[in-house]
């Protein structure tokens, strides 16, 4: 049976995950908590708005203080960027040590040598993602997404679709770009030819996305089940029905995290419950009973044995499935 090591904190958890197998939790109040031979914490921001794990080496965070901070596994932190009087709305990690952040209409890329490249947009830069290969940054914005090559001259690629796009992700093979929208939908583009992919039917906004280990499925929240869109074919999910895993009546799925090697997805719900479900036969295993507040974030460790989770009411912890 899985075992749960709870960590009850005070406030909304923005990101939970692992750095060198040490559990980390980033809270909206700007504190970073880690379980490293005891519970340790440090203040990274005066108000934390976004976070992203940069592989297993750094936790990137952006705050209301206009700072972008990298925290390492030992707890050491470094300010990598600053935009005075502007909030950092999104952060992303990329290849070759590059990172990016969004502040207002601007997206900034910081290369490993400290060089900064700034890109302005007509409207607010809402979401950021790097392509898996090469240095290419996607920016979600109003009416679509923009693709930049920070090391190249020339105009960016504009992908248009009406509406507010709030999050963005590349498929692991780099063939597709998918955005989360304000209107309870996902939208995608096949990058080779710009073909559109419309993924609708959600009763709520999609706030959590996770690609399966081989990139064959994209798991999403926003419904009373985890919705997994198939990306095995050359045209992605068009004309194909998604998998629906972990259906629980009217209880909404609020977070998803695909296992790093197996076709399994961890599913977090609005009532705090966490399940694991297998793609092939929909078999479910209860990982955590319902608690207080919605699950907001989950990430597996590199070996796929432990799952860190965080919630909107500060209920966090680590689930060990090997126990």
UniProtKB/TrEMBL annotation:
Q: Which Gene3D superfamilies does the record match to this protein?
A: YVTN repeat-like/Quinoprotein amine dehydrogenase
Key words of the record: Repeat, WD repeat
Source taxon at top rank: Bacteria
Segments spanning the bilayer are none
Q: Ranges for the Anaphase-promoting complex subunit 4-like WD40 domain?
A: 260-322
Under which name does UniProt file this protein? WD40 repeat domain-containing protein
- What species is this protein from? Mesorhizobium liriopis
């Amino acid at each position: 049976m899985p075992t749960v090591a709870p960590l009850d904190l005070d406030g909304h958890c923005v990101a939970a995950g692992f750095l060198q197998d040490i559990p980390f939790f980033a809270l909206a109040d700007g504190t970073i908590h880690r379980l490293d031979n005891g519970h340790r914490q440090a203040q990274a921001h005066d108000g934390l708005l976004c976070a992203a794990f940069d592989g297993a080496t750094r936790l990137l965070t952006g705050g209301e203080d206009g700072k972008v901070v990298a925290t390492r596994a030992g707890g050491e932190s470094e300010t990598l960027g600053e935009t005075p009087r502007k909030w950092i709305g999104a952060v992303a990690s990329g290849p070759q040590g590059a990172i990016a952040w969004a502040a207002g209409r601007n997206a900034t890329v910081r290369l490993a040598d400290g060089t900064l490249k700034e890109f302005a947009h007509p409207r607010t830069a809402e979401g950021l993602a790097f392509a898996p290969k090469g240095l290419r940054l996607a920016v979600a914005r109003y009416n679509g997404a923009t693709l930049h090559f920070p090391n190249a001259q020339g105009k960016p690629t504009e992908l248009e679709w009406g509406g507010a796009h709030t999050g963005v992700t590349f498929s692991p093979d780099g063939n597709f770009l998918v955005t989360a929208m304000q209107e309870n939908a996902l939208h995608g583009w096949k990058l080779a030819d710009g073909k559109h992919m419309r993924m609708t039917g959600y009763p709520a906004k999609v706030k959590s996305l996770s690609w399966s280990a081989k990139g064959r499925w994209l798991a999403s929240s926003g419904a009373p089940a985890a919705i997994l869109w198939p990306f095995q074919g050359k045209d992605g999910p068009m004309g194909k029905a998604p998998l629906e895993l972990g259906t629980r009546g009217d209880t909404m799925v609020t977070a998803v995290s695909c296992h790093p090697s197996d076709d399994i997805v961890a599913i977090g719900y609005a009532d705090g419950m966490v399940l694991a479900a297998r793609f092939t036969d929909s078999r479910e295993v209860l990982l955590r009973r319902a608690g207080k507040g919605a699950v907001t974030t989950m990430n597996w460790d590199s070996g796929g044995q432990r799952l860190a989770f965080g919630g909107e009411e500060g209920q966090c912890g680590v689930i060990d499935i090997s126990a």
